[in-house]
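Write out the bound-state structure for nicotinamide-adenine-dinucleotide.
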Amino acid sequence: MNATLVTGAASGIGRATGIALARAGRPVILWDLNEDGLNATAEACRTFGIDVSTATLDVTNESARRAALDAAQEYHAGINGLVHAAGVSGPQPISAFTQLEWSAVLNVNLTTAAALTHELHAPLIEAGDGAVVYLSSIEGFFGHQWLPAYCASKAGLLGLARASAHELGQFGVRVNCVCPGAVQTPMLEPFLDLGNNRATIIGRTPLGRLAQPDDIADAIVFLLSPAARFVNGTSLVVDGGLTAISGI
Ligand SMILES: NC(=O)c1ccc[n+]([C@@H]2O[C@H](COP(=O)([O-])OP(=O)(O)OC[C@H]3O[C@@H](n4cnc5c(N)ncnc54)[C@H](O)[C@@H]3O)[C@@H](O)[C@H]2O)c1
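---
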């Protein structure tokens, strides 16, 4: 059976997505920098009896991606899904801009999403039911003073999804974004622990809680599944209603 590649699979949303796919009976290819975290995700996925392969790599490294992709294609029957969940936030206001840090955030979050879509487009087309999901964010629609590079990368993913959906949709491959609100993961914890941020976000969310990684993973599994067969080039906001209300 064809497999789905999940980047950022050692932690947070990527880990939950790998496990949710495995629970749905779908083989997974798990990539991350963090080998221990990756092994823990792989072990959890294997309990569902599906094929799992892993690679410890920096997803921005083109030759490492190529080698890992070759190994995955040898191990699995084919590849019909891509979830780019590897991401970094890189807080840095525009007043403290450095090209190096800006490029580091854009490279992981956005450029690698485009590179992976390019590198996987042939197997995704061949699969006949290929689908791609990028982890954008509600920060793709709004701004935050500490996160210009992050916001730009997440807005960029919305454009990338639309353009790729146009090109690859003609060959049966769907490309969409999921836009989470505040999800309780290691990436967000330092921000939640600052001042009243945790209580403020919960208070502004109609559903009255933070998202858990599973909440986002289930939306991603939907976007990859036949149930979303006519959903292409769009984004699904999963934020408990945080951005649906004015906040007044
Ligand atoms: N947590 C949130 O509130 C939230 C909200 C909206 C969007 N997102 C997005 O969801 C995605 C997952 O975030 P998360 O909250 O699960 O974060 P996380 O920090 O828990 O997980 C991110 C994973 O990406 C991996 N990673 C980072 N850079 C890498 C690289 N160069 N090569 C390989 N692996 C790399 C990390 O090792 C980590 O395992 C990110 O794109 C993030 O921007 C998160």
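---
The pocket of nicotinamide-adenine-dinucleotide is lined by residues 8, 10-14, 32-34, 37, 58-60, 85-88, 108-109, 135, 137, 180, 182-183, 185-188 (CB under 6 Å).
Residues 99-127 form the longest helix (29 residues).
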